[in-house]
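FAQ

Q: What does a record look like?
A: Structure on top, sequence underneath. For example:
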C-alpha cells in the first residue's frame, strides 16, 4: 500500500540528511503462512513488516463476488483513514488476504484493480521517493518506468486495458509488487538506492528525515 511522500506523488528525495545505520528486518520468504478469512468484517487493519503474510504470492480471482466487492470497499475506507502521510493504495496481502487485487486512488476517488498485470513499461524512468503503509516512517529511492500499459478487471469483472501515467502508474507498479510478495525495500536494496527514516517534524510541520543504511 503506497503512501505519498510529502503529500506529493513526484516528491524528490530529501537533500540534507544525517546518515547512520539501523537494523531493519524484512523477511524475504514466507514461513508456514496460512491465509484465513477476516474474523471481524468491519475491523480490518494494515499488516506491518516483517509479517510473513506480506510475502505471499496472491492467487488469481476467478469470479467477482459481492463478498469480494465488500472487501474492496472496506479496503478503500481503511486507506482513506491515512491522512498524514496520505494513503493512496492498498493491496490484499496488507490485510491478510491472498486474492490478486488492490485498490488505488484514481483522481479524487478510488478504483478497484482485480487480476492486475503490467503489459508493457516505458523506457523512460524516474527515481521516486517511495513509502508504504506496511512499513511506516521509512522511505526509499526507487527507479520505475514513468508510464505503463496495464490490464485488469474492474469491480464488474470487465477486463480493462489502459496506459497509465503520473500518480496512478506509480501506484499500480507498487501494488503489483505487493501482490507478488515484493516490498519497496526489496527494490531499494536491489537498486542500491538510498533509504530514509522519518525522525520528527520541523517547525512548519514538514517531515525531518535521516538517511539509514539497511544493508
Amino acid at each position: 500500500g503506497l503512501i505519498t511522500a510529502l503529500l506529493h506523488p513526484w516528491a524528490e528525495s530529501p537533500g540534507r540528511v544525517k546518515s547512520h545505520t539501523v537494523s531493519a528486518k524484512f523477511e524475504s520468504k514466507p514461513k508456514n503462512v496460512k491465509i484465513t478469512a477476516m474474523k471481524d468484517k468491519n475491523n480490518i487493519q494494515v499488516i506491518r513488516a516483517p509479517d510473513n503474510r506480506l510475502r505471499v504470492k496472491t492467487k488469481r480471482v476467478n469470479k467477482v463476488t459481492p463478498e469480494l466487492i465488500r472487501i474492496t470497499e472496506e479496503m478503500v475506507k481503511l486507506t482513506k483513514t491515512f491522512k498524514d502521510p496520505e494513503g493512496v493504495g492498498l493491496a490484499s496481502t496488507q490485510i491478510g488476504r491472498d486474492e490478486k487485487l488492490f485498490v488505488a486512488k484514481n483522481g479524487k476517488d478510488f478504483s478497484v484493480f482485480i487480476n492486475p498485470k503490467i503489459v508493457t513499461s516505458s523506457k523512460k524512468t524516474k527515481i521516486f521517493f517511495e513509502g508504504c503503509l506496511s512499513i511506516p516512517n521509512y522511505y526509499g529511492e526507487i527507479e520505475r518506468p514513468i508510464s505503463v500499459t496495464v490490464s485488469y478487471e474492474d469491480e464488474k469483472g470487465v477486463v480493462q486495458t489502459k496506459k497509465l501515467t503520473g500518480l496512478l502508474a506509480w501506484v499500480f507498479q507498487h501494488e503489483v509488487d505487493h501482490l507478488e510478495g515484493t516490498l519497496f525495500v526489496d527494490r531499494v536494496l536491489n537498486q542500491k538506492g538510498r533509504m530514509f527514516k522519518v525522525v520528527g517534524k520541523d517547525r512548519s510541520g514538514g517531515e525531518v528525515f535521516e538517511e539509514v543504511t539497511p544493508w
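Q: Is there anything notable about this one?
A: Residues 120 and 149 are 5 Å apart (CA to CA).
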